[in-house]
Amino acid sequence: MQYSLALDQSIENIQKIFQKFQLDSFEFMCLKAIVFFRADKTLQQAEIIENLQDQAQIALAQYTQIHHPTRYKFSFFFK
Description:
mainly alpha
């Protein structure tokens, strides 16, 4: 029961953050890919997974520069 409440609160916090950033569907997809493609160094294909994550980060950065040039929503990812 306690675990479920903590999970619900975490999901609610994430939703608030996404609402604050006013993500469109492409930005949301890129963020999901960045989170999903976290490479565990013990995986046999960790380099491939890291490349996929890098590609998602680059796509997000390029998209943001083109569609929101005065807003740097995701600059914290690229520091």
